[in-house]
């Protein structure tokens, strides 16, 4: 890819602005040689004002989303993008969340600029499990696990039943729920269908990938073995 398009696509400025950076001699290779618009060079060797560039296109990251942040680039209020490098908002291809978490849900949120990977993760065929920790307003009735596992639960306003989901009660008002779909407000609506109300919802894992010490509000890039965990492989 052309150097100008590459650097502009990372969010460093418009093509015109990037051309100006190049003409000012601010873009070099790792040895400090000034680069021109027509130079072909691998991403890892490019420097801007002596600094390595942001992550190359085709990346995936995970964020420990706090409560109170919206999965959107435009809504009013606090956005998950506020927790990420500001240049990411100007990237092309754009950085999107892989599915969504409600504003009041915390936990593991994936973000990527790789549309193919995004679709492979959310595709129903991939059957990627999402694990939620749930706190409820009222005690569990006792029949929820069987209902959720039945594959017969029809949520309000929907025409197709939910795929079987696994519920593990952790206490009278707390549970771990594993689902392989991503319908709108799915977990909250599943418990609403049992006459209960979710008061706290936290996504602990996507596939076998867990937050593992990533603090609330923090993010990190995923490595290939993390991506393998998303698709189910477990760490030995
Ligand atoms: N289900 C919900 O109801 N909300 C979320 O944020 C995720 C799953």
Report the CATH C-level class of the largest domain: Alpha Beta
Mean pLDDT: 96
Task: Give the end-to-end Cα distance, rounded to a whole number of Å.
Answer: 39 Å
Give the tally of β-strands. 12
Structural shape: elongated
- Helical residues, percent: 10-25%
Bound molecules: uracil
What is the makeup of the main sheet?
Answer: 9 strands, mixed
Please give the count of helices: 6
Order of helices and strands: HHEEEEEEHEHEEHEEEH
Strand coverage percent: 15-25%
Find the CATH superfamily of the largest domain. Answer: Alpha-L RNA-binding motif
Query: What is the architecture of the largest domain at the second tier of CATH?
Result: 2-Layer Sandwich
Taking all Cα atoms into account, the compactness measure Rg is: 22 Å
Number of domains: 3
The low-confidence parts are: none
Question: What is the CATH topology descriptor of the largest domain?
Answer: Alpha-Beta Plaits
Specify the structural class: alpha+beta
Keywords:
single chain, 236 residues, alpha+beta, Structural Genomics Hypothetical 15.5 Kd Protein In mrcA-pckA Intergenic Region, Chain A, Alpha-Beta Plaits, 3 domains, nine-stranded mixed β-sheet, three-stranded antiparallel β-sheet
What does this structure look like?
This protein has 236 residues and is α+β, with helices and mostly antiparallel strands. The protein has three domains: 3-52, RNA-binding S4 domain (Structural Genomics Hypothetical 15.5 Kd Protein In mrcA-pckA Intergenic Region, Chain A, Roll), CATH 3.10.290.10; 65-117 and 210-230, 2-Layer Sandwich (Alpha-Beta Plaits); 129-206, Alpha-Beta Plaits (2-Layer Sandwich), CATH 3.30.70. It is 20% helix and 24% strand. The chain has helices at 3-12, 15-23, 115-122, 144-149, 186-192, 224-230; strands spanning 27-29, 46-48, 51-52, 60-65, 96-97, 105-112, 130-136, 166-171, 174-179, 198-206, 209-210, 219-221. Strands 4, 5, 6, 7, 8, 9, 10, 11 and 12 form a nine-stranded mixed beta sheet that branches. Strands 1-2-3 form a three-stranded antiparallel beta sheet. A hairpin with a 2-residue loop joins β8 and β9. α1 (3-12) crosses α2 (15-23). Uracil binds at residues 101-102, 105, 185-188, 201.
């Amino acid at each position: 890819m052309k150097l100008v398009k590459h650097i502009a696509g990372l969010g460093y400025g418009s093509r015109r602005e990037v051309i100006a950076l190049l003409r000012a001699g601010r873009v070099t290779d790792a040895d400090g040689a000034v680069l021109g618009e027509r130079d072909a060079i691998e991403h890892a060797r490019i420097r801007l004002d002596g600094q390595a560039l942001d992550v190359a296109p085709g990346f995936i990251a995970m964020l420990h989303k706090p409560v109170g942040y919206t999965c959107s680039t435009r809504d009013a209020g606090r956005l998950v993008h506020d927790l990420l490098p500001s240049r990411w908002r100007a990237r092309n291809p754009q950085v999107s969340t892989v599915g969504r978490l409600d504003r009041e849900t915390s936990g593991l949120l994936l973000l990527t600029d790789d549309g193919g990977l995004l679709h492979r993760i959310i595709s129903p065929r991939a059957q990627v499990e999402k694990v939620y920790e749930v706190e409820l307003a009222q005690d569990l009735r006792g029949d929820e696990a069987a209902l959720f596992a039945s594959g017969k639960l029809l949520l309000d306003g929907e025409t197709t039943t939910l795929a079987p989901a696994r519920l593990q009660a952790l206490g009278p008002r707390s549970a771990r729920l594993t689902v392989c779909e991503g319908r709108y407000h799915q977990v909250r609506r599943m418990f609403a269908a049992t006459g209960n109300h979710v008061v706290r919802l936290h996504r602990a894992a996507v596939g076998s990938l867990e937050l593992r010490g990533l603090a609330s509000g923090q993010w990190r890039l995923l490595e290939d073995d993390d991506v393998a965990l998303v698709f189910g492989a477990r760490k030995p």
